[in-house]
C-alpha cells in the first residue's frame, strides 16, 4: 500500500531544506561579512583623517581664496574617497563582479550627467576662475555685456551685481567670457588703476 504525503509534510521539508541552506550560506559568508565591517570601520577613520588633512592643507595653502572654492575642492575629494571605499567594500565581501559593473556603470552615468549638466559645470569652472582672479572682486564696478554694476558676491555658479539698486544675477560662464572692470572714478586722476 502506498503512503500518501500530506501537503504540510512537503512544506515542512521545503522550509527545513531552505533554512539549512540559508544557515550554511550564512556561515560560509560570515568571514567576508566580518571582514567587510572591519574594512568599513578602518576606511571611515582613514577617510576622516584624510579629509581633515585636506581641509587643513586647503586652509593653509589657499587661505586667500574664497571658502566656497575650498569647500568645492574638499567635496570633490570626499566623493572620490567615498566611491573608492564603496567599491573596495564590495570587493572585500566577495562581490567583485558587482564592484566592476558598478564602476563601469558609474563612468557611463558620470559621462551622461556631465553632458546634461555641461552648462552648470561650465558655470562652476568659470566660478573657480573668477574666485581666483585678483582683478574681479566684490565691490568692483564691472561691465558684463552692456550691464554695468558693482559686484556684490561671487559664488561658485553665479555672480550677483548691484545695478542701480537692483540685484542682477548672471552665470559665471557668461561673465568669464565678456567682463571688463570699470575704472574707479576716485582713481582716474592718473594715480590709480585704470581697469582691465
Task: Name some characteristics of this structure.
SH3 type barrels; 63% helix; 2 domains; 5 strands; alpha+beta; 5 helices; 196 residues; five-stranded antiparallel beta sheet; disordered C terminus; single chain
Concise structural overview:
Helices cover 63% and strands 14% of the residues. The chain is built from five helices and five strands, in the order ααααββββαβ. It starts with 6 loop residues before the first helix and ends in a 15-residue tail after the last strand.
Please explain how this structure is put together.
With 196 residues, the protein is of the alpha+beta class. The protein folds into two domains: 105 residues, no CATH class; 46 residues, SH3 type barrels (Roll). It has a five-stranded antiparallel β-sheet. Strand 1 and strand 2 form a beta hairpin. Helix 1 packs antiparallel against helix 2 and helix 4 crosses helix 5. The longest helix is centred in the N-terminal third of the chain and has 55 residues. It is elongated and about 90 Å long. The C terminus is likely disordered.
Strand content: 5-15%
Number of helices: 5
Cα distance spanning the termini: 106 Å
Low-confidence stretches are 188-196
Number of domains: 2
What fraction, in percent, of the residue positions are helical? 55-70%
The structure class reads alpha+beta
CA-based shape: elongated
Largest sheet: 5 strands, antiparallel
**C-alpha-based Rg, rounded:** 30 Å
Number of E-type strands = 5
